[in-house]
Amino acid sequence: MNQLLKPAGKMxxxxxxxxxxxxxxxxxxxxxxxxxxxxxxxxxxxxARFYPKEVRQQMPLCSYRKYTISEIINSVIKSEFTIKQFxxxxxxxxxxxxxxxxxxxxxxx
Length: 109
What we know:
alpha+beta, three-stranded antiparallel sheet, two-stranded antiparallel sheet, 13% helix, globular
């Protein structure tokens, strides 16, 4: 993103919350693991579960690495962005748990 944006350009990053590493609160059939795991694993694309079984079987598997919130925020800081806002959003399956996040940052250089 740093290479794509002009100085003072805005980055908006919205993704699944890292809490999903150890709980499938979004009910997307992700494998669960330790929150601090750096393991790379293979699984279906997030939207695959919305397709019939015969279509799902034809979709290639993806390699995933789930990052912690601190890894995400620190990578934004180290990439010379200034974080302006960070919000956590409840899971659509259970409001008691985080499901997604949105981070807004400005390119500083």
